[in-house]
Amino acid sequence: MKKYILVFLLVLSLCGFAFGQDAEDLELDAFKPAFEDFAKGVANTLPMASTIGLQWSDAYIRKLPHFGIGLSVGTAFMPATAFDTVLGEFGLPDVGSMLPAELPVQKLGLPFPAYSADFRLGGIVKPFDLGFKIGLIPKSLQSEMDSLLKDFDIDYLLIGGDFRYALMEQNKRLKPNLSVGIGYNYLRGGLGMPVSLGDAAGTQTFTAPDKENPTATKDYDFTLEDPKMSFSWQSHVIDLKAQVSKRILYVITPYVGVGASYGRSKTRGGLETGVLLDGEKVDDATITEIKEGFTAVNKEAPDLTADGIFVESKVNGWALRGFGGLSINIFFIKVDASFMYNLIDQSLGLQANLRLQF
Prior knowledge:
Strand order of the largest sheet: 1-2-3-4-5-7-8-10-11-12
Mean pLDDT: 80
Number of strands: 12
CATH class: Mainly Beta
Low-confidence stretches: 13-26
CATH architecture: Beta Barrel
């Protein structure tokens, strides 16, 4: 799992490196086309990534006192082209040519990792169970990342839960376990990295129309102070699923299922920086006033705020996936491996789980 995280961070750092390479030719508005594909690619991947965790082999774990606790790790694969556009804007080759050949990123996509601690508790009276999961960056892992990736800011949170109701319980013949469920997942993450723009790129001049006198213009010299490449993402997902499983010889439990998710996802990418106007820190009110000059004469204003330059992408809609796998059962220890397939965009996901289930 740590390998997936580092590969993902490596590609993001390459984006920051790419930005610094052509710093002297930088134009602020170049961010918009460069990051739009990235933002959309991540936003489309978030709903599947949020479903990592609580995908256990048993269709349900029966009523109290049955319960389980474990750890899930996995990845959803996002198209490498989401990064290729960013890199191409700054004259660098695509992701596949910059990473080791044994990583088939062009075929499978770039791994977008997720992990969580899982807990399930059997229901009362009726055959149902409740699940809860949470994933965050422990202090020990944060310290290791800080030593490997100095000056990087990293944020990660995955939290969710589900309710599953058993429609059928397996018997010694062919009858399997069958359940349906509904759940909610919230996934949030972010990454910040410092970049060096150089003197030429650090100062940008906008010749803006004067809203008081549309026939005249003003020159504004903006300086970008302590710039940092910034990426952030979040997704709220409602997940519906149905699953069937069958324990074989008490040792193996194969399972398959289908899931339909409705996600509201948002991503943000760009340059986080203090903005100075003629050497003085400006606020959004000042920038808004400058942009009004563009609007007054029907011209497009620069994509700039007091906190930097950003591109946002919002993706709302349904995703349909199939999933399946099996667990190896050694008494109350379960080792589970599974896959996911998005039937809409043909993307893949993988996950594994180790748990104690009683």
